[in-house]
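Journal club prep, notes for RB
We'll compare a predicted complex against what the paper describes. Inputs for the magnesium ion case:
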Amino acid sequence: MSITARVLILSSDESLRDEAKLAFESLGEDSPRFRFVGNANQLFDVLRNQPIDLVLAEFSENPRDITSLVRQIHATVPSTRVAAILRPEGFSENVNESAVLIDSMRGGVCDFLRRPLSTVDLERLLKTGTPADDRRLPGTRNQLGRVVSFVSNKGGVGKSTLATNTGVAIARRGKQSVLLIDGSIQMGVAAALLDLTPNATLTDLARESERLDPTMIRQTAAVHSSGLHLLAAPADAVEAMEIDDVLMARIITMARQTYDLVIVDTFPMFDRVVIAALDLSDRVYVVLENVVPTLLGGVKLLSVLERIGYPAKRQSIILNRQQRVAGSLSINDVADRMQREIDHVLPFDKRVMAAANCGVPVAMALLRFSGFSRALEKLADDVAGLIGDNSSRLELDELPLGVTNASPAIGQTANASRADDSWEEAR
Ligand SMILES: Nc1ncnc2c1ncn2[C@@H]1O[C@H](COP(=O)(O)OP(=O)(O)O)[C@@H](O)[C@H]1O
Ligand SMILES: [Mg+2]
């Protein structure tokens, strides 16, 4: 790193201070300048006056305090990253650790560190970031990328087809970097749809989870000729068992630090991995077919989404494989049954299946006169439009699924003393 990074460590634990010094010392030349602050007031005092790359904050007794802290830090300096340090004693018994970890990633924590702090973990975190004085280094983004998921209550409705083709359509425009995560982890088909033979899959990331960072995600992703990157699903159901919700949340959190857009294909079941993906999604695309049983299930799915914290305004409804044949439901019928407007209609087109069979997504061919391609481009415009559109950005007080109801701001802790001006260097 050409410019020395600056790290602030928020903790009142003296032993953490020694640990951090030791770990930073071993970084040699890459050791950052670091400084300890004992409370949030001191932290903000420094943040307001000096460029800080990374804040390491210990989870307080109430693990939800961290989301409140992150919100305040980002309101003060949006580009400063915050990583959370897990307490050596862990969380108390009545706290669901994975829910807390995912929730804090949702709240903006970029990663977690375990005690004792290790040089490897710190190096990984520092490598990821861009020094606050020079934010134009390639490979990292100042603004986090957007995340969208494709979901349905039933298989075979076209989630994978649409997730893949949307990714290809946006990537081939060449304006935004796009990652497709095949979150249909037990039977992912995205690699086949793209005719890719990935060297590595999500399982490899699970096995390297200690070293996981945005660079590793880029290196693991297979690259399609359209420019789309793919994190492929595990090779089989046994390998899929290595993927858990916290890993999925970490992967998405890191991916959005380096891609403009992250698209997640899912499996029609709300297991913890899918919920972790939804939890981090700015928008959920619900894929339906105009078949009555599917629609009945779809109504239930919308109500479940609503109950777990996804208001209608963050859902988009897609009617796929639409056909006008005798006895079939019209688009208006579908909207009536769903009690919702249909945002996108993609017609049934045999060429979509043919494209799937030969591994060349329809979006590569751009059949100019095809209704499917036109509708797909419209869907791609919609998804791409989320990038840079702050109105659709999830706010912290709208956390979905969240355990969180952010507790009183840590930054307003009483008895604040001003931070002293001492920076430490391990070298
Ligand atoms: N608009 C469409 N027209 C024709 N066939 C389609 C369309 N969308 C998807 N398909 C086909 O439907 C099947 C299921 O699609 P897929 O994307 O695998 O569904 P899911 O991921 O929801 O299980 C595939 O054979 C796919 O080629
Ligand atoms: Mg699928």
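Talking point for the session: The pocket of adenosine-5'-diphosphate (ligand 1) is lined by residues 152, 155-161, 189, 320-321, 346, 348-349, 352-353, 356, 372 (CB under 6 Å).
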